[in-house]
Amino acid sequence: MQYAESILDLVGRTPLVRLTRVTRDLGPENAQPLILAKLEAMNPGGSVKDRIGLPMIEAAERAGILKPGGTIVEPTSGNTGHGLAIAAVLRGYRCIFVMADKQSPEKQALLRAYGAEVVLCPTNVEPESPESYYSVAARLARDIPGAFKPDQYWNMENPDAHERTTGPELWDQTDGRITHLIASAGTGGTISGIGRHLKGRNPAITIVGADPEGSVLSGDIARPYLTEGVGEDFLPGTHDPSVVDRWVRVSDRDAFLMARRITREEGILAGESCGTAVVAALDEARRVMAAGADAVKRAVMVVILPDGGRSYLSKLYNDEWMRANGLLATTGATTRVGDLLVARHPGAGIPDLVLARTTEPAGIAIDRLQQFGISQMPVSQDPEGEALGGIVGAVSEKGLLDRAYRDPSVMERTIGEVMDPPLPTIGVGATLDDAFKLLASGASAVLAVSDGRPAGVLTKLDLLEYLAHNRG
User: Fold this and answer.
1) How confident is the model at residue 126 (pLDDT cuts 50, 70, 90)?
2) DSSP-derived secondary structure letter, 346
3) pLDDT per residue over 228-243, tens digit each?
């Protein structure tokens, strides 16, 4: 019979698979370098971080820092927490994991499924802030009796575990022919540990780091980004920059779209950090191809896919979330408001802008709405002018009907007495996506503005008609 004594015995020895479909943009297959993906999602906890959980716990036990009945407290983006939680379940430890609130609900739920407690902290604060997830974890570890903080950012068991396991696996799996390693980095433990082992075997191996835009690991200026689990706003002690030969910075958009391509084209359910790494791998592959046919023939490139996509179903694989965060193109992403205003009434003889005046009778507004077949009309306090500063309100079919139905005498009043607040404004150079956000937030229409002057009104029906005729 073949079986493991515990789930921990199944960590590591993850397979390599060749990428052949997301690489098509590189050209003919026989002119490309061999690109192999190491599937770390095949670990029991679903990520490369399973490899460091038990070693950090065992080292603390040997040092007498973690004792029976103790509590493990760790700041994590989720995956390290999962690895620690699995080991803690079998060792009988309580776990408290502190996470930034940008991490996906699935990651939080999975930690709780293992019996861990989850504490959420704001994302966009400095690492030194008392509110940061680093600071909160440090405080909890200090204040809870018998608590131990593995601290993956400074614990050398992190890179050492990869130097002992992941690196040798790659060397053996490629029969020592590996020429390039590409890996995204967070704590730096994975790329540093694997890189040290591989360069110890062959100093000519190229190590490429994949880093989100806004992470300081590649020398960028720290700023918020959406990609989870990789990149940092400080330099961890577990990161050895001397191991990395070259960095490739990857935008959120490129990382997310590549992850979706890996899933839909290769059948590998990938996370955002996988997308980051594969974008960098393709970039490095182009450099190899530029070096000539001999370089391509020799190349054996391995890209680490750190986790899977199940933890990102509510974000990465949610089209609405992707669109809301500007990561997924929409029909109106490139069309401008001004373009729609020009095209919506071809040959209809309707003026670009129809205005009402505050001093006119309300009945005039109804006649004008009917005359031009429109439902919304800005109201100006200027008797003749069309300056934006003169716009003080708006009238609509719905607003006038609501008032007239309750009190027919409103028809004898001036438009200034029965008008609604002004419509929100939008520049003619803005995209239809921008207009949609205003309309979706409750506005019945928006007033397009060009060079400081009102240029026309865009309604929900205008946008709907555009979408109906521009679905491709």
Assistant:
1) confident
2) T
3) 999 999 999 999 999 9
Nearest partner of 286 among 32, 20, 28, 19, judged by Cα: 32
Give all strands (DSSP E) within 91-153, no chain letters: 94-100, 117-121, 147-148
pLDDT digits (tens, 9 = 90+) for 71-124: 999 998 889 999 999 999 999 999 999 998 888 899 999 999 999 999 999 988
What is the reported pTM? 0.74
Q: Are 166 and 190 contacting, i.e. CB atoms less than 8 angstroms apart?
A: yes
Q: Is residue 457 over pLDDT 70?
A: yes
Residues 248 and 372 in one domain: no
Q: Are residues 215 and 317 in the same domain?
A: yes
* Cα 128–chain centre separation: 24
Is residue 282 included in any domain, yes or no?
yes
Which domain-ending residue is among 324, 346, 373? 324
272, 303, 324 — which closes off a domain? 324
The tokens describing 355, both together, are 């205005």
Domain limits for position 213: 7-42+172-324
Cα 363-366-371 angle, rounded to 5 deg: 125
Number of domains in the chain: 3
Contact 11, 44 (CB under 8 A): yes
Question: For residues 7 and 90, is the Cβ–Cβ distance under 8 A?
Answer: yes
Nearest to 463 by CA among 445, 450, 441: 445
The CATH number covering residue 458 comes to: 3.10.580.10
Cα(194)–Cα(207) distance, rounded to whole angstroms? Answer: 9
- Which contiguous run of DSSP H or E holds residue 287? helix 272-290
Q: Are residues 33 and 59 in the same domain?
A: no
**What is the chain's length?**
472
> In this structure, are 115 and 227 located in the same domain?
no
257's CB contacts (< 8 A; 6+ apart) are: 275, 327, 328
The rounded distance, in Å, linking the Cα atoms of 190 and 202 is 18
Give catalytic residue positions.
Answer: 49
Q: Which residue has the higher pLDDT, 334 or 186?
A: 186
Tokens standing for residue 333: 């992403």
Query: Is residue 280 packed enough to be buried (19+ CB in 10 Å), middle (13-18) or exposed (0-12)?
Result: buried
